[in-house]
Amino acid sequence: MKTTCLSLAACLLLFVPAQLQSAPQDAPDAILAAMKRAADWQLAQPPRHKTDDWTYGALYAGMMALSHVADDLKYHNAMIAMGEAHQWKPARRIYHADDHCVSQTYLELYFQHRDPAMIAPTIERFDYILTNRRTGELNFRIKGNQERWSWCDALFMAPPAWLRLYLATGDKRYLDFMDAEWQATSDYLYDKEEHLYFRDSTYFDRREANGKKIFWSRGNGWVMGGLARVLQMLPPEHPRRSFYIGQFRQMSAKIASLQQGDGLWRASLLDPESYPLKETSGSGFYTFALAWGINRGLLDRAQYEPVVKKAWKGLVDCVNAEGKLEHVQPIGADPKKFDPTHSDVYGVGAFLLAGSEMYRLALTEAPSAAYGNFLPQRKDDFAWENDRIAFRIYGPALERTGEISSGIDVWAKRTRKPVIERWYFEADYHKDHGEGLDFYKVGPSRGCGGTGIAQGGKVYAANNFVTWRILVNGPSRVVFEVGYAPYDVAGVKVQETRKFTLESGSHLNRVETRFVWEGGPGAMDAVAGIVKREGATKPELVSAIPALVGWEPAASGGGHLGSAVIMPGTATLFETTDQAFLQASVKRGEALVYYTGAAWTRSGDFPDRESWMLYLQAFASKLN
Q1: What is the CATH number of the domain that holds 582?
Q2: 22 lies in a domain?
Q3: Of 402, 480, 524, 563, which one is least surrounded by beta carbons within 10 A?
Q4: How many percent of the chain have pLDDT more than 90?
Q5: What is the pLDDT of residue 23?
Q6: 490 and 552 both lie in a single domain
């Protein structure tokens, strides 16, 4: 396909700006509205640069972040249109980090769709680099230096793409390359006294008017954004994780200390008086990184939340009535004076990244909230939660290790706050530190409400999910859909798609599972089940509700866990040695709708089995 700016613009011009909201600026709905307004304005503008270069790469990172919290697929669809327009190729220069930036978005779309065409050109490019690796100096005055990451901006452009390719393929060479090259750049450009990065080696001996070293705001914003986007996906067991965390915390403390009275940062970090204009691109990346750090428990909330809230207000104040983000310093390598009404795509990308983390932060303050996310750093899990309970299902990377399960896992919470982002980052969720824990074991079973097809006394089930998409992500409910590869049911290939809806305040998901097959019978027996445990009450059909109800002692953390499957309409009990199911006939292409969930006695909601049963009875009565 021939790539033209016009064809991409035509795709983007389809989108119309959203309306202003009247909620406080730091409320979830208001944050999302501000993000949409800025995104819609930008999408309606004709391209100003090559649409596969670093400027647009930063915008696309922000668009992807928006797509995961928005209740509108148009941002996701715009990114699909962009990838197709560029045939999923990185930009032209083989080694230059700027030309790897767009691959971050290709890879994130691949995580959702698992289409090999989306990452094949990136694999080809990065494999060539590994085979023909450059080892030259990082001195910016030496020819060829930009074939390595010799300027600080590069740490946003390339490393997140290399790390994402490792997670997509399992090929550790990409991770090792990213780590080694980041270390080389850090050793060369990171000032260990100021805890900031020089833009490149030409700035080592230069000084501002006040005699201070020159540290460019957006340059360090690129680094902070890159650090967050690397730590976001770095496997918890990585041996050098502490290095990235340490640098992130050092830079966060320094950046927070340089915030100006209006909440933003100036183009020159150590000489703000010489550059009095607001600057939103660097400020956007700082807000993103600091809010990201709070949400993962890396930064102390009491210390940093006032910083990011003040910064977000400053950023939103720079979005005009049309949705244009102003006060963006033009393209350059150092602090400069500029037209305060200037905007550019990378500034909008930073704003959207910031908004996505401010949205997550706002959910922690909501009286009740629901939220979900794909988390590839732990073998492609998809996890979701509300103020009562949390769940997860398993994706393709886990299947690569031989662990096959399309069952549903339960995370037992005893806090009303969102936890999944932080628990995954801390990677210590098998112990209760006061908020709950994961003690539920799924294995190859259906877990708590997983589905399949019953045939000849046996249950056939899909492997791990392959595709996913978020339809609604808070504040009061989360809705997402996952797709599974076809699986064999007595010689017939069945394909399954599940749509989950979890409302705030509820312990039960609404699940709409659609089964499609060719040939074979016109109808099959679909099941949704609960695993049996040794030493636990066997899941039983309670006809008065009707529901399949489980009750078992927690493997750790104390108390008991109640589980349930409610299937409206006519359903019968079906059992195997290790699982119990509710069973109902479904026609080809028809959806099975049921409800499934769990409750922990230590959550404070259900002290005993009787209270869990009463809740299920009331829930079923409401359905009827």
Answers
A1: 2.70.98
A2: no
A3: 402
A4: 93
A5: 60
A6: yes
Split at pLDDT 50, 70, 90, the class of 581 is very high
Q: Write out pLDDT tens, residues 441-476.
A: 999 999 999 999 999 999 999 999 999 999 999 999
Catalytic, out of 26, 53, 153, 381: 153
Is residue 59 domain-shared with residue 172, that is, in the same domain? yes
User: Is 35 buried (19+), middle (13-18) or exposed (0-12) by CB count in 10 A?
Assistant: buried
SS3 per residue for 115-167:
CHHHCHHHHHHHHHHHHCCCCCCCCCCCCCHHHCCCCCCHHHHCHHHHHHHHH
Residue range of the domain that includes 324: 5-15+27-363
- Residues 94, 234, single domain; the answer is yes
153 in catalytic set? yes
Answer whether residue 14 shows pLDDT above 50.
no
Contacts within 8 Å (CB) and 24+ apart, 175-181? 175/238, 177/126, 177/129, 177/130, 177/133, 178/230, 179/238, 179/240, 181/148, 181/149
List pLDDT tens digits, range 175-207.
999 999 999 999 999 999 999 999 999 999 999
Among 363, 383, 398, the domain boundary falls at 363
Report the SS3 class of residue 600: strand
Specify whether 346 is located in the same domain as 383.
no
Mean pLDDT estimate for the chain: 95
Tell me: do 289 and 425 sit in the same domain. no
| CA distance linking residue 358 with residue 308, whole number of Å | 8
Calculated CA dihedral for residues 195, 200, 202, 206, nearest 10 degrees: -30
Q: How many domains would you assign to the chain? A: 2
| Domain end residue (candidates: 319, 336, 363) | 363
